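User: These chains co-purify. Model them together.
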Amino acid sequence: MNPKPVKLSQIKHHWEIYLFILPVVILIGLFQYYPASSGIFHSFFRWNGSDISEFRGLENYIDLLKNTEFWNSFKLAFILGAWNVIKMIPALFVAVAIHRCRNERMQFLYRTLFVVPMVIPGLVVVLIWRSFFFEATAGYLNRFLLWSGLFDVLARLDSFLNWGGIFVEGRMPAWLGDPRLIVTACIVWGFPWVGSFAVLTHLAKLQSIPKDIYEAAEIDGVGWWTKFTKVELPLIMGSIYLLLVFVIIDTIKDAGMILALAGIHGGPAGNATVPALFMIRKAFLDQQMGYACAVGIILTIVVMILQKFSTLVMDPESMNARQRGVFRGLMVLMAAGFLAWRYAGDGVQNLTVVATVLIVLSLPYEWIRLLWPSRPQAIPVHHEGSGVSPMGESPGDRYMRRAFERHSDPVYRALSAAGSWLLRFVKHAYVWLVLAFAFLPLYLMIIVSVKNNEQFYLAPATITQPMFWENWQTAWDMVTPTVANSLFISTSSTLLTLGLALCGAYFFARLRVPASGFLWNALLIMMMMPAIANLVPLFILLRDMSLLNTLAALIIVGASGGQIFGIFVLRNFIQDTPQDLFEAAEIDGANHFQQLKMIVVPLSGPILGTVGVMHFIAAWNDFVLPLIVMRDHARLPVMVQLLRMAGEYIKLWGPLMAGYAIASIPIIILFVFSMKLFIKGLTEGAVKG
Amino acid sequence: MKALFHFIKSYFALLMVGLVFAWASGSILVYRNRTAPPGATVLRIGHWQLEASVRDAINEMARRYREIHPNVYVVQDAIPEGVYGQWVSTQLLGGTAPDIVQVGAMLPWNIWLSYYNRYFIPISREVNRANPYNRGTELEHTPFRQTYKDGMRTAYVDEMQEYVSIPLSQFGIRIFYNKDLLKRLTGLDAAPEDYREFLRACERIASQKDERGNHYIPIAGSQYHFGMWDSMMFDPLTYGAVRKADFNRDGFVGNDELYTAIKTGRLGMKFPPFEAKFRMLREVTDHFQPGYTGLTRDEAVFLFAQQKAVFMTTGTWDARSLQKQAEGRFEVGVMDFPVPAADDDYYGPIIEGRNYERPGGGFAFGITRTSRNPELALDFLLFMASQAQNEELNRIIGWIPCILGTEMDPMLEAFEPHLEGIYSAMNLWLGGETATKWMQLYSAYQVDQVSYDGLVEQFEPFYKEQGYKDFMEQQRDWRRGMHQNERFLAGIRARALASEGEEAESAWVKYRALTTSRQIWAELTHNRQVQLIEKGPDLEAVGPYEYSPAVLKKIRERIKKEK
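Assistant: Joint model of the two components:
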């Protein structure tokens, strides 16, 4: 249903609907728009966030454009983004493999097994990779390379391709210490790259494919690969596109994982500096807040362009030919400007790359779409007018006859059975292999959590005796207050988000009142704006509101950002609810609050569950904002505490790992209990492809 | 009952959420009350010393202090080194900084300087009074700053002309070595003092294998340890730059002076002492374990403790823990950093002596302007810096006390500072873009990703060009300090005008002396630097301790005549 239009003269009958959007407007205005506009304002100043504020005009931007490190950070973000797209493939295959399981119990088992290791907080996985896999002298990655003989291959390649001695016999590569390897480390971590959200989204989409299509395909003798490429892939393309956009944009605006992996200086030689990390460093180490604001603005512009580009690739019809022409012309002009600047001898090196990217972006998107098959054509179709063969048999009939003949052949049947068995074996083997890798961090976490340091150094990956269960008690004492803080923050923020988002979504979905279009567009812009870009002015705002070092700051800021996505999802859901229900309620005299309570809330359980789970996890895993705004140990969320524990001089590995495990348990429990609801919500359209 | 069961089943998820929320809220309240009882005065102290013994020692000090001030509770915020810079910046900027903050490292000096100006309370007046907690000792009537072994010199900020921090310990850095392993692998009974001998010993160690067939590592290193080698062994080679860049003739080359010298062409990165530093760096770090730049402090300590490496540098802060780890397994020796001999072909003409070590204190704390109890914060610091408590504090930690008349662990005697020597004259850290660029290229050089020529080629033009902005930023920071100083001077002048007799005389003397030293000379120095830079390269110019060709000619002629 479309929102019912309400004219200005009718507004007196519906004025209370504005109350639904009022808290949303206040929160978004205060914690999103104000920092954003303050950021734009201060980006023109030499500002240290305190007593220095001198107008510089465009100098911050000019300096930025000349800054090689800034361009390198974008280059790295694009490299990581491209790799993250490639890393989506294992999750897709895992989802398909699970979906293809005919045995429902097996499917459930896989789903459950996958969820457990995959919902370990990303920060914990990063810290485990940092300590166990990338460690130079005895890390698992180097051990694996040596054991598998890959190291020798790499050493030969190194000498043949002149990599400069990264892999040299008798010298273990330092993945996090060598400027030449740090980017590779940023790509490799988290192998096999199977994220729970991606798998569950794909699964939900796959489960929504009607069984008739599969049955028809099987009757037609379609093979497993054709089934994937011609049936499943095109039908879940929507969710793949959506994840693709999320992945690219998240990579561009993310700083947290790189910060945890490589440190605030971006690792050796700063080679792992992404734009957001560059911004944080400028703001909170170099005290160049105005400059950092300019970085945030450019980051926002890049993310918006990327988002627009993704939308155009997915739906080129959303712009008319003229708009597309203007858009492309602008990009070509910018590219020409950069090239002219570059070759005018101003010493800016990397703008050629930017110009090239802009030129590629300005190409007609239809070309890109042409590369992608838009319609599955798995089986030969007899088209009218195509004529019949000289034998008097149509192509469709001939195909069916041959298929029937093949299936009558006992050798073919035997081979087909063997092939089918082999495929099943490969499918299960693949799932178990990925599972083994996915469980490895969890296994290490548990094993090491009952060791003392000596046992850890001697045998880090195997069970040793005696077991030091008291490590768990120590860890419990260390992380309990922070776990309680995180639970408090995540739960409060989630409840607040759901409440606000539901009211906001109702406002946008039910009626088209004056200003609702404006507010919706304002909301959409916020969806595109990376939150981290506003970090600096947000920090100043929180300071001015005396909210620094309070749990309230994390709850309110979390909810103000989270509700935007919530409104977007819930609005679609409410719009799909039959209009008759609302009309009947209105006839019965129900006001908007009653309609929301009696109609929307009871129907939106699964979708609220999905949005709630997603927000809870995001709030639980967030550590960049708390790292900046919190001081007292008693108020820290658990992720910041883990980061601090990992920074101890002499690490007590047992309690540290037990602490990681304790920090993961709430999320694992949450997912195990809510998985069914979550998938139902996804299937019902929480993430519309 | 059935209805209750049905209710629980229907609302299980919500009930769980409610229970969890209730537990979380309860825990938060309980934990906060446990930190300090309601109504108590809380003093927060932020530091980066994550050694357990430091936290224990401060807790012990807090306990003792509470015996005198029962309502005062001290809460520690111990932050890892890696994020301390960012943490302290955000806390100071946000006005939420603890009452007492550890200062002086983890951020570039220019940033600390700007923080001292904005966020810390100067304590110059207080350091000239006696420490009340020294009552009953020989230091009872001694001004606080003179109760320090170094006269509290390290706490004095030249640029501000103020004391802003109170140090609590004294540090030294030496090389620790495994005596048994050194003897077994090289036959040497004592550690080599000569640089070349040291390198030869390293080569012998590296050529031998342990029982598992792995090569021994001569030096256990990490990024953390590299900094010590750099400052203690490589940096002193650059001392020669003093003659060309010490414009204010104070014996040191500040980062502003070095920039002025390089910008005006008096010095270049190819200056032989600078090149020598980089050559020595390469020679020594070749004996570190591979990938040391990616290792953490404890990983290097582990290698040493497991007898896989022979040498490791560290400071007094690790001495006790290393002794403990070696107990009953091997003997730990402490040696000085080896120095090239005067007749060394390459380093001989360049090296001018051993690294000078300030006998000053570290582990220094400042009081923030946002502190709700600045007097109490100062009082607690004075308590920890009193003779008896400072000895106890450092005894618990295992560090060297910095107050006169205190006793220290005999093991730490090898760390007594060298009071004669030279120091680094290659401070390229101007902050901002140049600092980032330097850090990147320097770490690339450490892993041999760039040669020294390549480093110079990439850095020097950038430093000259982009460094101007950072240099000027530093000048602005200095000028802000001058404004504060003017207010301080105005106070003294007002006192001089308002008083009579000897008091007025004394105030006028102080006013004139401070105006000359803090305002006029500083202004002249800075203006001269800016002028030099703005005039551009002057390749004919000579350094402050050098004779110009014309003067040299005159001298030669005069000597000839005299002969």
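Chain B has a mean pLDDT of 87.
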